[in-house]
C-alpha cells in the first residue's frame, strides 16, 4: 500500500507538463472546496435558525410536561405529588388546568385557552421574561394575563377598569342545551399583564390562577390537565422521566422540549434535510470534475504507467494509485472548505455581515457534527468518484 500512496502523493502535488491537465485539476479542487464550504455554511445557517426559532418557545415550555394519554384529566393525589417532590432530579413542578374558553370584552369576542397555574409556575418556566406590559397574576384579586394578539383583538390592556374581561366555558355534562343562559360557567377578571412570545402563542393562552380555573372549569380537587416540570441543571432527562413514570404510571404521556414542539422540529428538520440533499447533488456534479481530472492524469501518465507495469507493478496497484489520488484530493478539498466555512460562519457570528433586519443578523451556529457530516459526505462521494476514474486503468489503456 505504501508504493501506491507514494506515487499518488507525487501525482497530486506535482505539476504536469500539460497546462490543460493542471487547469482541470485546479478547477476540480476548487469545486470540491467551494462545495464543502457552501454545504457547511448552509447547515450552520439551519442550525442557527433552529436555535433562533426555538428560543422563544423555551421560555414558555418546561423541561418536561406530563399529559393524559387519553381524555383531558389527570388524577394525582397528595401522596403522588409528595413523591414527585422527593425526586432529586426535579427542581420544581407546577399543576396546570387548561381548556378552551370564550372571551368577551365590550362587544368584542375571541376564543382562547385558559391556563390555570399555581404559585410554582414562575419557578418552572421563564414566563416573567415574556411580560411586556403590566405584571404577573395579582393574588389579591381575580386577574388574568393575556397574549399580545388577544389584547389587540379585544382592545384590552392591563388594569382597564372600565369593564372586566368576561370568560365563559360550557358546563360539563351530556345532553342537549335547552337554556343557553344556564349552560355556561362565567367569570369576570381584570387583566393584570400582557405577554409576548410568538405569533402562535400570543393568540392562544389566557393565564389565570389555579383556583380560579379550577372553579370555572368545574375540576375536582385531585384533577389537573397537565403537570409541568423543571429539572435540575445537568441531570439525565431519561432517568428523570423513568422515575416520574414509576409514580404516574403508563396512562400518562411524558414530553420533553422536543416532543412539546413536534411540528416545529419536524418542519425545521425536513427543510434541513431537503437543503442538505440539494447541496449534496451539487457536490455530486462538482465531483464529476474530479473524475475528469483523474482520467486526464491517467492519460497524461500513460507512459509512466507502462513503465511501472514493466518494472513489476500490476494493474491493481496502478488503479490504487489513482484511486488514492482522487480520494486525497477530495478529502484535502473537503477539509479546506470546512475550515473556510468555519471562518466565514465565525465572522458572521462576530460581525453580522448578513442581516435579516437592520438590527437582527442572520442566525448561524457552528456545530462540529455538521463539519463531520460534510466531511463524511465529501469522503463517500470522493471514494465513489475516485473508484470510477481509477477503473480506466486497464490493459486496453496500455495497448
Walk me through what this model shows.
With 399 residues, this protein is an alpha+beta fold. It folds into 2 domains: 2-57 and 264-398, no CATH class; 64-257, no CATH class. Helix content is 53%, strand content 21%. It is built from 14 helices and 14 strands. It has helices spanning 2-13, 19-58, 78-85, 121-124, 148-154, 199-202, 210-216, 237-248, 257-260, 262-300, 302-310, 315-351, 368-390, 395-398; strands at 64-68, 74-75, 90-105, 108-117, 131-134, 143-147, 165-170, 184-195, 205-209, 223-224, 226-231, 252-256, 355-357, 360-361. The strands form 3 sheets. It has a 6-stranded mixed β-barrel with strand order 3-4-9-6-8-7. Strands 2-10 form a two-stranded antiparallel ribbon. Strand 3 (90-105) and strand 4 form a beta hairpin. The longest helix has 40 residues, at 19-58. The radius of gyration is 32 Å and the shape is elongated. The two termini are 26 Å apart. The relative contact order is 0.19.
Query: How many strands, which pairing sense, and closed or not: the largest β-sheet?
Result: 6 strands, mixed, barrel
Q: How big a fraction of the residues is strand?
A: 15-25%
**How many domains, as an integer?**
2
Terminal Cα separation, in Å?
26 Å
Write the element-wise H/E pattern from the N-terminal end onward. HHEEHEEHEEHEEHEHEEHEHHHHEEHH
Q: Would you report the number of β strands?
A: 14
- Uncertain stretches of 5 or more adjacent residues: none
Task: Determine the fraction of residues in helical runs and give it as a percent range.
Answer: 40-55%
Spatial strand arrangement across the major sheet: 3-4-9-6-8-7
Find the structural class using helix and strand composition.
alpha+beta
